[in-house]
Amino acid sequence: MDRNAPIGVFDSGIGGLTVAREIMRQFPEEKMVYFGDTARVPYGNKSKTSVIRFSEQIIRFLRTQEVKAIVVACNTASSYALEEVRKIEDIPIIGVINAGARTAAAVTRNRKIGIIGTAGTIGSGTYGNVLREMKPGVEVFGKACPLFVPLVEEGLLEDSVTDEIARRYLGVLKEKEIDTLVLGCTHYPLIRSTIARVMGSSVTLVDPAYETAVQLKTLLGSMETACDAGRELSAEEKYSFYVSDGAEQFTAFARTILPDVVKKTIQINIEEY
After folding, report:
1. Catalytic option among 74, 122, 170, 190
2. Is-contact 127 182, C-beta < 8 A?
3. CB of 32 within 8 A of CB of 20?
4. Which residue is catalytic, options 185, 191, 243, 261?
5. Which is nearest to 110 in space by CA: 196, 205, 175, 180?
6. Is a pLDDT exceeding 80 seen at residue 231?
7. Nearest Cα to Cα of residue 95 among 57, 126, 119
8. Domain annotation for the chain: domains and CATH numbers
9. Quick check: is 74 catalytic?
10. pLDDT over 80 (residue 230)
11. Known catalytic residue: 227?
């Protein structure tokens, strides 16, 4: 495998850029191909069969870009499709759930952990299963927050509507007296300040992006496929961005997350893969 091949990252939309940003921070020398499935976002209200099909299509596209590893930067796809696509692919593929669960298990003090995510992620029970395996006796409380993704996709990051929805969703978790809350959707770190304000300073928020990048670093090191140090490349040479719809809108929003990185976005017909 070419050590200098790019890393593939995909999400249902723009949320995975929070994971991409952390990978860029920890691996400034690595190249990356990002795909956001903006035509079919959100994944959280789709069936498991559909999410698996979407993931397989995206991975086939990323394989055309000759990526050396793939990060499923979507909690719903990680819940529904990760094990399925690993069975049929011969390159390393990692998700975001194990990384988030590992951090939550390490930082909780009272063993009461909340998980917020899409209906698909919460309904799958994957986070709870992984957490209870990592830390027997832990109590896990899941809460689906389906409106958070469209609010983020619409750019309503600091808005009274988002504040009100957050208070309604998170109230039940506050009643459970959790001390740790996993942001179980890669869109949610973009409204982290709102979530933190509602939950209060006694609750630790866990963003799986950092630990996912650490896991990727370990993986590439063990396989000896980390990028060779070479000439300095520009952002346009290192990073490519693709979507299934709304390229201009994606570019404009992505530049608020990754200033001076997203130069252009290419729209493709993902159904061809």
Report:
1. 74
2. yes
3. yes
4. 185
5. 180
6. no
7. 126
8. 7-96+210-272 (3.40.50.1860), 97-207 (3.40.50.1860)
9. yes
10. no
11. no
Distance CA 89, CA 188 (A): 29
In the predicted model, is pLDDT for residue 145 greater than 70?
Answer: yes
pTM: 0.89
Q: Is 152 in contact with 14 (CB distance < 8 Å)? A: yes
For every residue of the chain, which 3-state class applies, written as one string? CCCCCCEEEEECCCCCHHHHHHHHHHCCCCCEEEEECCCCCCCCCCCHHHHHHHHHHHHHHHHHCCCCEEEECCHHHHHHCHHHHHHHCCCCEECCHHHHHHHHHHHCCCCEEEEEECHHHHHHCHHHHHHHHHCCCCEEEEEECCCHHHHHHCCCCCCHHHHHHHHHHHHHHHHCCCCEEEECCCCHHHHHHHHHHHHCCCCEEECHHHHHHHHHHHHHHHHCCCCCCCCCCCHHHHEEEEECCCHHHHHHHHHHHCCCCCCCCEECCHHHC
Q: What pLDDT does residue 236 have?
A: 86
pLDDT tens-digit profile of 236-271? Answer: 889 999 999 999 999 999 998 999 899 999 999 999
The predicted pLDDT at position 44 comes to 87
- Tell me the β-bridge partners of 129: none
Q: What is the mean pLDDT of residues 64-92?
A: 94
Distance CA 120, CA 74 (A): 11
What residues pair up with 180 in beta bridges, in sequence order? Answer: 113, 204
